Amino acid sequence: MAHRTAHRNVRRRFSIVSALAGLATALFVAAPAPAFAAPAAVEPVPLTTAHAASSVYSLSVNGVSVPVNGYSGYDCAEFTMGAGEARIAVTKLNGTNVGATYITPIKAGYVASHAGSTSTFTIAGPQYLIVKLDGNRRLIISAEREESNIPAVSGPGIFPITAYGAVPDDAGADTTAGQQAIDAASAYGSAPGNPRGVVRIPFGAYQVANLELRSNIEVYFVRGAVLRLIPDRSLYSIDAHKSSQNRDLTWWIQTEFGSENITLRGHGTLDGRGQAAVAAGFGMNILAPIATTNFRVEGLTVREAASWAVIPVRSDHLEFLNMKLFNRLDMGENDGIDVIESQNVLVRDGVGIGLDDPYTTKSWPKNVGITKNWPGDPEDVRDVRFDRLISWTYCYGFKVGQGVVNDHSNIRFTNSVVHDASVGIGIHHKSGAGTADDVGFYNIDIERLTTSNDGNRTWLLLKIDDAYGDGAGPITNTLIRSINVRSAGTTPAVMKGFSAASSVQNVLFDKIRMPGASGYATTLADLNITSPSFATGITIQP
Q1: What are the b/e assignments for 103-120, b being 16+ CB within 10 Å?
Q2: Which domain holds residue 57?
Q3: pLDDT confidence of 378, banded at 50, 70, 90?
Q4: Residue 478's closest CA among 520, 439, 531, 519?
Q5: 72-105: per-residue pLDDT in tens?
Q6: 121 falls within a domain
Q7: Can you tell me the distance from the alpha carbon of 513 to that of 510, in angstroms, rounded to the nearest whole number?
Q8: What is the pTM of this model?
Q9: Domain for residue 130, yes or no?
């Protein structure tokens, strides 16, 4: 991996200035649209035969019908829009009148009008919404910008998987066709003077086992295209074992070690079929960018993992943009994206849902069940930003940890919304002797805390444990700024170090508004931090 090492030697770190840039810019949550705005052109993302239509809701946007998928625990729908406003009409299929509409983000201030079984409101531009009518399940609406730079259907450098024998919407395996298209595109894109080769996935559902992504390719999903995991353990390499689940795992779609310059984009889906995989005796990480550099995901939906869904590991210069993480709420340890021992990572614009943490960073010991096949040596987690996201979970909305075996530094969670969680934001340094340093939570809106995790139902947790018996590492220089706590939960906020040597050090609270308060918090009591221990250098600014 000499090329990757050389690349790292010259890479530029995110500066704190650049990490904070954009805090003064407009949020992804748009204000209600003015009445005179022109309607946007709308293009729905269609459903394949793999995913059933909702029995609860229908959706139209500017008069265009948008398919709604009835998923486990919630529904979801996706469309793209051009410039202008979008008039969204959500209808209850049972025909009963709408009494109340609940819309996340609350801070956007949307007001819906009701006419019979339909609720209508307007958005000014692309964004992510969680809508609930009366006591019905939630509907996740992904409104994204219209596509640009769409690859050609055929021609030099275009490698459709159907040209290699893949057949949409049938029961056959398309793994060989998919891998052959990837290999051909990489060979083309790696030739001197050529642009990246494009692997084209036409509309439809394709059944595949393990795929390995190689250098210098773009995998383009035509609107509505789906790759579906085949629930047959015999077809897969077993790459890891997760002892807490007592489950063997495969890296379903992974990068070749030492690869570079890979993009996956389009309004398509990676469907891990987690429940079916578990029934077949295994689990998976859906997307595993491991030992890669210059890797990008844009526009994809990652769905139903049976373990951590997306795991960037020991990689650098990664972007995950407009990525939807739709995991089940009845399957545990199904984190959305865990940034693991990687550097210069941006996760921006998206929604993450699952029983377990949607957005986290981690590091783990070498040569244990989940790490035994990771190449190279453990690395620090550095220069990571999560920005303009919505999180819904039974665990932490946004989190560092639990593993902090290697150091974490310059980690930012910004301009985001916790729709519902057990813990709104937190650093749980449960295991490892690394330092969690320079972690910031800025401009976070915590809407609801309706579940409990490990006895905690609170807006904030900063805690150090010593699960490995190595003395644990400290949490240092944490900045918590401009947090709107609409719900503080039912248990006190936690600020608990492990010892004088492994303590929570230098925490700055700035402009924290607690529920029902007329102004910003000025004391620990205001913040509902009742029993801090091994915590020093705490500053609270109104």
Answers
A1: bbbbebebebeeeebbbb
A2: 42-145
A3: very high
A4: 439
A5: 999 999 999 999 999 999 999 999 999 999 999 9
A6: yes
A7: 9
A8: 0.93
A9: yes
